[in-house]
């Protein structure tokens, strides 16, 4: 009965989404306030209904209801409760339901917290969000229904893909989907503004918090996915330029450009047409990622295996929304008024350069991802585009962006003085040069490219710190006043600095791992030791361990430094009994919060020995620490009071006070 309630809730949500798609938009166009008022309660009701459907599917997983096909195919009664819950979205149908749940959540948030948004824009935005919701609910009900019954119901399920039976599944997809789907509301704002013909600085200020929120969660989602692949797959890598990884990276690049473009539009009223286009393209790339993951065109550890009918349906959604939005943009864009002029050397000019490089980088990743697919469709020839292509195209585009990054915050609006900014960055340049020279001296001339990378990372990090310190003016006002000035800085200032510093930290981690890591692949037997970097690993042997739905062979390694035992690593080779599928559980030990010793087991031998892959990875955790710093910067920016539009109550109080003074 609960399953039928969940199914009915989805059908009712689809009916309401169709209502929301038409009535509020028509009211916004005609100025009918009664029709516009329909949008907020309908958006809230849709969230409630999809939430009921999601809760019904979750309950089916928790009680191992094998009368539901989705539960049969992706669960097992012996599976731990955590993985029963995460298994809800560890498959195509369930993850699509989570996708739609987040989609209607953003609509409900705009309905609840968008009180300062003009009624016409709010109604049109929720109406456009209804279009997207209706399309995906129809897709789910027609081709991907999570509530189909199995008859007769089997006694036991097939279990979840063993690779997905990890805490990463509890964290990575929800974070990633909030980022992916979060850009839908930015898209809806853009289309609503084009429909109404209203694109101005106030629109940019309304859009920025939603863009920041989506960008923050997408950053966290990508970082968590990277770390999950790093420790779960046993390959020892953090990024593989997998097409599905690229599918999430492209919206992140476009969203980063959108964040910076919206700042120019808000502050100077410039780049209106470009900012609206970026809002459309960012969500279009999110839809493209959905197509790549769910259409079956890719073979990837990240992709869902789906049938062609689903791929065709999603392709239709892509054509309608991307084609329709670009057609509307082409019709409306010439009518939009351009903003103020600015000199090439200015803060606006720096942000335009940022946008140019980020969009070209996005295009490079897009070409490398889609070209093999298009070539196979057109010629039946199969090729692969791997890391060499992306490193040679994406990397050179990032170098000028990183070099220019510290200059932007120091430049004045409208017209800047590049020479004066250069003088203010002398100390930053000196520290970056020192970092580069020390690295070259310690590692030798053969690591000169790595030394340049370290210097570039130091340039970005120190540049972010210099911009914040320049606002304190310690030299002019003293320590106590300077600290007070720092405490009083707006959240967006701290957010910008932390965002840039996080980029530098991630870059430093990437350079250190790429250039200085050590790797050994060998067969080791009980009682033998192996040296790597400053550490010695003594292999004590393998032990059989039985879990709730698996058995594994656990290797025990004692790690020594200078003859002193400092840690223990316990990598495992695991076999899940239901699917008879093996997985690798890496043993990872972190030293000093930054560097790691990484051990993974390959083949286990009859004599008690094992093939192992051993790494020493210096500063590797900076890759993910940098992402956390970036995300924390976004949080601080979100709390910036200047992003709260309207503030009608304070304005009302001022008017009352003024009236009393006049009396």
Task: Characterise the protein shown here.
The protein is of the alpha+beta class. It is built from 22 helices and ten strands. Strands 2, 3, 4, 5, 6 and 7 form a six-stranded antiparallel β-sheet that branches. A four-stranded antiparallel β-sheet has the order 1-10-9-8. Helix 8 runs antiparallel to helix 9 (201-232), helix 9 (201-232) runs antiparallel to helix 10 (243-268) and helix 9 (201-232) packs antiparallel against helix 21 (622-638). It is globular. The N and C termini lie far apart (67 Å).
Question: Can I get a quick summary?
Answer:
This protein has 22 helices and ten strands. It has helices at residues 2-30, 33-36, 39-62, 69-74, 81-86, 92-113, 119-143, 168-196, 201-232, 243-268, 272-294, 308-332, 347-379, 387-404, 418-424, 426-443, 448-472, 474-477, 479-487, 491-516, 622-638, 648-662, and strands spanning 518-524, 529-532, 535-546, 550-561, 564-569, 572-576, 581-585, 587-591, 595-604, 610-617.
Q: Helical content, roughly? A: 55-70%
From the alpha carbons, calculate the radius of gyration and give it in angstroms: 27 Å
Q: What do the pLDDT scores average to?
A: 89
Uncertain segments are 645-663
Q: What is the rounded distance between the termini? A: 67 Å
Number of separate strands: 10
Please give the largest β-sheet: 6 strands, antiparallel
- Helical element count? 22
DSSP strand (E) fraction? 5-15%
Broad shape: globular
| Backbone structural class | alpha+beta
